[in-house]
Amino acid sequence: MAVYFDHRIEAPESSDVPSQLTWHSTIPILAVASIRPGTGGNVDLYLQQGEYVESCHVERPHQPTVLQWHPSKTVLALGWENGEVVLLTHPSGDQTVLPSLHTARITLLEWSSFGSRLITGDQSGALAVWRVDARGKLQGNHLVKHEYSKPLTCCIFRPASPGDDVAMLARASVSGDENALDMFSWKGAPLKMGPQERLAFFVSTADGKVHSVNEHCKTCTLFSVEGSIKKLFYLEKKEALAVITETLMLSQYMLGPEGVAQEFMKVKLSTKSGESVDIVWTENSLLITSTGEQIIRLWDLDKDENYILSLDETLGFERGEMINSISYCAAKEILAAGTSQGRIAIWRMVVQPRSSRRDTKYLWKLQTPTEIEGNVTLLQWGSSLNLLAANNSKTVLILCEHMMSAHFSQQVAAVQLTPTQLSISNFSTGVHLALQSDMHIKGVCVTKDSVTVWNGKLVTVYELSGTVLRSTGSFPCESHVVAVHGENLYTVEPNRVQIRTPQGTVKQLLTFTKAEGNPVLLNVCQSFLVVGTDTAHIRVFELSRRDAKAHSSTKNLADQICNLGALRSVKCNANGSQVSIVITQVNGRPDHKVYFYDIEMDTVTHFDFFTGRPSSGILQPEDNEKQQIRGSELSGLCPVSHFWDESEPRLFVCETVPVGSESSSVGHLDMVDVLVVTLFCTQEHGLLLQDCYHKPSGLQALLALDVPYYYFSCKPGERDPVEAPPPSQQTQPVKGAHAQFPHMVSRRALRDFVGLENCEKTTRDAMLNFSFYLTTGDMDEAFKSIKLIKSKAVWENMARMCVKTRRLDVARVCLGNMGNARAAKALKEAEAEPEPDARVAMLAVQLGMLEDAEQLYKSCQRFDLLNIFYQASGQWPQALETAEIHDRIHLRTTYYNYAKYLEFMGDKTLAIAYYEKSDTHRVEVPRMLQDDTSSLEIYVTKMKDKSIYKWWAQFLESQSDMDSALHFYESAQDFLSLVRVHCYMGNIQEASQIANDTGDRAASYHLARHYESHDDIKQAVHFYTRAQAYNNAIRLCKENGLDDQLMNLALLSNPEDMMEAACYYEEKATHVDRAVALYHKAGYVSKALELAFATEQFSALQFIADDLNENSDPALLARCSDFFIKHSQYEKAVELLVAAKKYHQALEVCLTQNLTITEELAERMTVTDSKDLSENARKELLEQIADCCMRQGSYHLATKKYTQAGNKPKAMRALLKSGDTEKIVFFANVCRQKELFIMSANYLQSLDWRENPEILKTIIGFYTKGRAPDLLAGFYEACAQVEIDDYQNYEKALDALTEAFKCLSKAKDTIGGQQEVRLADLQHKITLIKKFVHIRRLYVDDADEAVRLCEALLEEPELDPAVRIGDAYGFLIDHHCQQVNFPVACRKLEELQKLLPSQNVRYYINQTSLKALQKEMGVLMERGDSRHNVREEDEVEEELNES
To answer: Which residues contact 1432 (CB under 8 A, 6 or more apart)?
Structure first.
């Protein structure tokens, strides 16, 4: 809560009536313009508390019209009625008169955002722009002058543009952006940091025109409106201009390039116009107007919403009180309004985190008014201190906000109500007093015997005796903080603390060194005083003796606490062992830790409310789930106040707010979620969390902790909803205040003392020990501390505590001592719930802690139990909401239970609605309304529900109203009841018509029974058939010999009825075919076959055989198969033999009758069960099947069966016959048997492996895997021969033969001596080929030597087939042709023809050489006979083969 101190300005006696006010934007200097009718006026400056600045007095014989402060310098621009403009400098008082440019009344003065330009304008329409330097001094004459010929009304500059983002430029520079690098370098333009001043502005005239003036002072008209413009605003978000005319017409214009403006909104403000209109525009697009009425109107242009604020008489405003002026403080989000009765109304913009506000009317909260004298005609907020200046037509008052002073000690509390009034409450005697002081109270300190107040200049002490307050002393003292202990007062001055008497006499001095700093903080608890200095030193003194003695040495906290800026608050505990400290960080922000200094151990620990954890010690020995709950609840907080218990040194309490709101004023704390946290602090266990709970909404701030209560200050104007005021003895205030005043202090019992507020000290100490040991987890000590307590109230309170601590084990003991068997039973039953919080919630319910139970159910998300809880506690709206959102599985049940509740309460109309929602209305509503026949009939008619129609028809039938009953039965489409009633009434034809038309089975059955009872068999059978009651129809047919109908009915009926009908036909022996068909249809195949064989029903046999399978009787199957063989239906016979598991016979039939074995038949003949055949027999059967498939050419199927029989070689042979290369390769790789690899490789050699390298690789791989090096060697030899014959590639042939030699060397000699012969032969071939290859290579370097070696090679025995003779002669012929030795070449050709008379020798000779021989020697040759490439050589080979 905040109060406002008012300081009247110290105006000189000759001062006139104030007319205008204006604050400097940052410095607390107020300019006041006064007018003297007929003789002129003056302007004076005043400081923060109204001090008059004599040097800054300006007086003229003319009236001042406009005042405008420089945005940063203490320079005031003054406009006068005669057109004079003066610049007044504070504090020197220098006056600079601008050159006389204006001749008419000055109507506007406007500074640019940085103050480098000043705009002046007068009533004649003259406008001038002046340049001002950085010191606020005028530079030369005006820059430009414009004439608009109409009075100028408003002027605004375009807002400053944002500067360059340095971080973004740095990132761009690192990434290589040259432009960004230039902006950082000396070559480029200077880097612009922060917002840049805009020199363009807009100006409006009285004829409704708005003109734009750019940076070069060029002017143009933007737009025009009707009427004189009263206010001009710039909307930065929309980049638009808003104008308000004197008729309160609001228009908004979107600004485009090159001086174009387009109107996009125009609206008439719903308020009265006039000279008294006060208009405020906020940065968040909120338009606020006051027009001399009792209300303030607000328009939110962003949300397109409007609402009003009005005065509240309950806060002290009078009926009919008018609002004259308004002013808005953006820094504090406060709207102030001056009234006609001398009051200043304050609205705060309420911020409620984690809540959604749909009605914007509740965004503003009206505070208690501040009263001043007279009629408040003008208000203005200003300066960085957010001071408020108020003009009451006689003088000016400066109001500064002061946080409410409050103090609690020794059961006495004092809370400030007004700047000069205190509310005193003595909780030990119940006395409630009011103290009216002559000074503005800035601080208060109370004890059980005294009340001390001060204002920073004066200290006054009052004696508190019963119901009387008596002043005992008053003395001047400039101490801003005072502490009291007994008869001593403690005040501060530089480097020392003064101990004074109530009359101000100094008894003792407590000195501090210069390094220790100046004392700024004092706190007394019991007999200990803690002093904090401005250099972050603390010292504790003991006050129990006559003189104060040092209890500890001076502690420098800056050595222990990082980032310490200054001390905010220090408090000591009751025995002087601990000091709690709250600090401000170096950056000026409040720290979110509370520090604890242990005097004996000389250590500093802390509790971090941002993380919810202490720096040392345990938080609590709880389960993980609870730690997570408490940790999340405590995290993200910041302390704002802290206290120690006045008698218990272990107990500490702290008031915390969410991070981000800690810097708000104390007055805002009622708008945020405040958490009160209680800790135990000991040397042994460190910091232990004892409790935390949310501060109730009706309370203002925490004052103190004194077991068993927390003490809070109350919000003004709000009564404490929990605690009624004590039976006070109200007395008149000391200085004649009002007799009636509010109770400003409320107390709340600690969690552990609810219900034990008035217990004796022994019980209180025992409960404190119990709570402490319970917090540490020491259950033995906890129970020891309370074992002697016999009071049920104490045990009940401890049980309640167990709900908070979630200790069900302790709760069971407490319930046992309470003797509460019902609660103990309920708790035991709740143990079945898996969630611990659900079990604790049941305990809370049994103890009547319904709010806690509700929160527990919500925290564990057991919405089903929460729903039941709401229903049991009668909270039906919450139950319905829970069921509809979270517990939809029980939604209909909830609706039903609520309907039962409403029925019990007599609200039948609403009960009907919820019975309908629960879908139980068809039964429940008629039951509920059965005594109110008329209402029930109306409901039935309205609902048009078949079930309800039926119920109503039955009711009418019971009343013998058959016609009406028939009508409603028909509406309900209850055809059975219709037929039943018609039969009862004798309307048989109508009943038959209904049964035939609808086909309703129940109706048909009822009608059939009726016809049967009247011996109408034909109709009875008909309606039994329509009712599908075939057994009854069959019974009647058998009894009455209706054989034709019997067959059809039996086929429609179940197997039992078919069997019965078949027996009937068999006994009569007249329709045996029908009996066979029915036996077969009923599933008695054996009986049907037996009867068919006996009566030779061959067509029936054929039909029945289709349904036979392996589950049929084998003997029956064999009999049927013989029958089909006899009648040459072999395929059917084979199927039956297979079904009978006579596979050999089936196979024999297939072989003898040449039947194709399909894959399906083969699979059926494949036995998988070892019970049918032994393993050997099974393999033999599979091989027989495979053999049969081989003969039929089904090689793939044969392969499959051979494989299943385990005969993989035969399987491979079958697969080889299929020629499926891909499957052959796959099968060989899968089986991985040597024999199969060799077989596969042999098969692959039969393919065109020369053209397919993959097949070549596979052949080599298979021979290798098959471990057949001899076969692999033979394959390599074949490869070598192919290279020689087809391609004349002796190099590759040499490589192949070498591989063949290697493989053959590894092979074993299975035939005696043959391997040695093969190896020698291979070696001989290799040697010859090597020579020939060497000759070819040597020819390039030494042709003669190569020819000689080739001649020698031809002399080698057994040269061919290693080296073909034709290739050697061809080499020689080509050489001689190249040497132009054609005779020798021709001779060699003739020799070759003699050696190879049967071959075409041209194949071995180069075509060029042949052409040369033909040309030179006349050798005959045919065109196209010679070839030199691969394709030509192939064709030659074909010709050779043909020859």
So the answer is: 1426
